[in-house]
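To whoever is on call:

I kicked off a structure prediction for a single chain this morning and the downstream step that reads the tokens threw a length-mismatch warning. I double-checked the sequence; it's 89 residues and nothing unusual in it as far as I can see. Pasting both halves so you can look.
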Amino acid sequence: MKTFVKILGLASLVALAACDSAKENQVENAYENQADALDNQADNMEAMADNLTGSAENAAENAADMLENKAEATRDAGDNAEDAVEKQQ
């Protein structure tokens, strides 16, 4: 699912790249990089959870889910910030 979302996001970026300003791209890239870092943390947390059992595994999986949610919220915030930049132009 995460791979699909990343591919979809990349396809969206390519489609929008032709009409975005440099400032919009800067804003979008900053948020996207932050969201990617959070996704990487979530992936690492899930890998760690695979080596745990019981409540420790559940806690690690919950932490990974929270990181994934934070990454998605960051992407949404980036979209909103990009839209705000676009409206200013």
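Update from on-call: the warning came from a stale cache, not from the record. Cleared it. Sanity check on the structure: Residues 22 and 84 are 14 Å apart (CA to CA).
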